[in-house]
Amino acid sequence: MPSSVFRCVRTSRAFTLIELLVVIAIIAILAAILFPVFAQAKEAAKKTACLSNTKQIGLALHMYVDDSDDTMPMANYPAPPVYQGPPWTQFQFHNGAGKSELAWADLILPYSKNVQIFSCPDDGGVAHTTSNQNIPGERLSYALNYYFYRQPGGISRFAVTGGTTSEITTPASKIFIAETGVDSTGVRREIVRPDRDAGMHRHQNGSNYVMADTHAKYHVEPKWWASVSSTIWGSPDDAQSQACPQWFPWIDSSEEKW
Q1: H or E element, residue 208
Q2: What digits encode the pLDDT tens for the residues 191-213?
Q3: Going by C-beta distance under 8 Å and a sequence separation of 6 or more, which residues neighbour residue 256?
Q4: What are the residue boundaries of the structural domains of the chain, listed by start?
Q5: Which residues are within 8 A (CB) of 157 and not within 5 positions of it... i.e. 6 or more apart?
Q6: Phi then psi for 188, rounded to 5 degrees?
């Protein structure tokens, strides 16, 4: 073989330990940067899905009101033994599905024809009894405004129903449905007020609401709501002095003050 011909020898070279550590460090840094972004995107998607739920609930509520002489639904039927069902609720409140009286969501369910829209994708709470037994039924992630059913002066003018939309001069600015969740005692409410805010801050410090005119929108929960005592929020006479007219259907104000 002529000496001018050289044999090429191909050699392979493995990564060194330092190079591997550098690659791993870069991957870790990228993951630390991207995971919060992915988490925020996932949370934004859940918030949007929840808003879609409330829009569908608002549409079902609109059809219910049209068929009920402009009357808003009651929060729930009188509790057993006064109410001798069936039909029983399908939802996770009081003693639960197959055991308790109908709730407002049961009343508009024939219009929504979709039980899943009453469950927020960010609501992982399961209501339980005082003996820590899970309450059966579909998750009910939304509740009615307490002050549609409790009036000043001890007058329960809307005790049986939420009244009529014609009685509310500014329905577009009045909360009728708000998000709810399981509170620290394991209770899931079917009526809520500012201190019963278990679900009002689960979407990036806010939540979705259905107003009395049945349109839905997102709001950040005002932090000062939690600083007011439950004694004040539990008394409509005292609560109406707070700077949140959107909660009180008897106050003629278009200011929401979020």
Answers
A1: strand 206-211
A2: 999 999 999 999 999 999 999 99
A3: 173, 219, 245, 246
A4: 17-247
A5: 151, 163
A6: -110, 115
